[in-house]
Specification:
Elements lengths: L1 H15 L13 H9 L5 H9 L3
Length: 55
């Protein structure tokens, strides 16, 4: 039972930590960095555009 839970946790972490932006769906290495800094999975260009033009 615990082996199944450990495998599920590993799969879930892998999905969560991919480098795909939630806004533009482009893979970028800055997504993980912004996830640590802000808590959102966005790339640098989406973060800057949301800062300059908040909607």
């Amino acid at each position: 039972m615990t082996k199944k839970l450990n495998n599920l946790d590993k799969d879930h972490k892998h999905e969560e930590l991919n480098n795909i932006c939630e806004n533009c769906s482009i893979e970028n290495e800055t997504v993980y960095q912004n996830l640590i800094l802000t808590g959102f999975k966005v790339c640098e260009s989406c973060r800057i555009s949301k800062t300059i033009y908040p909607v």
